[in-house]
Write a structure and sequence with these properties.
Layout: H1 17-26, H2 31-43, H3 47-59, H4 64-80, H5 85-104
Helix pairs in contact: 1-2, 2-3, 2-4, 3-5, 4-5
């Protein structure tokens, strides 16, 4: 299964998975790559790995704009796969984090 989401997220597809993994371990604070990789694991139905990557981004204070983009990517994913509960749960988690960061500022 090949899943493409939007033109500005070329890294989100299974063909780039091994490169994204390498980039993640080479530079785990490349938040765009980490969050793209997490989305790939949502699409591949690998919830443990996806949640670990999202939690890593949240616990290490990934920039709010990257978190918001991850939310948009998950919302686009849900347009295609509306019954994916992991995607919806992850959106809720990321939105709570984004909301609390906004209120803390």
């Amino acid at each position: 299964m090949i899943v493409y989401f939007s033109a500005d997220d070329d890294d989100i597809n299974p063909e780039n998975d091994s490169e994204n993994h390498w980039r993640h371990y080479e530079n785990p604070k490349d938040w765009q790559n980490t969050l793209n990789l997490a989305l790939y694991h949502v699409a591949a139905n690998q919830p443990d790995t996806a949640q670990t990557l999202y939690q890593q981004a949240l616990s290490q204070n990934a920039p709010t704009d990257k978190i918001r983009k991850a939310i948009r990517n998950l919302q686009e994913f849900l347009i295609v796969f509306p019954s994916n509960s992991l995607a919806q749960q992850t959106i809720d988690l990321l939105q709570q984090s984004s909301d609390s960061e906004t209120h803390d500022s």
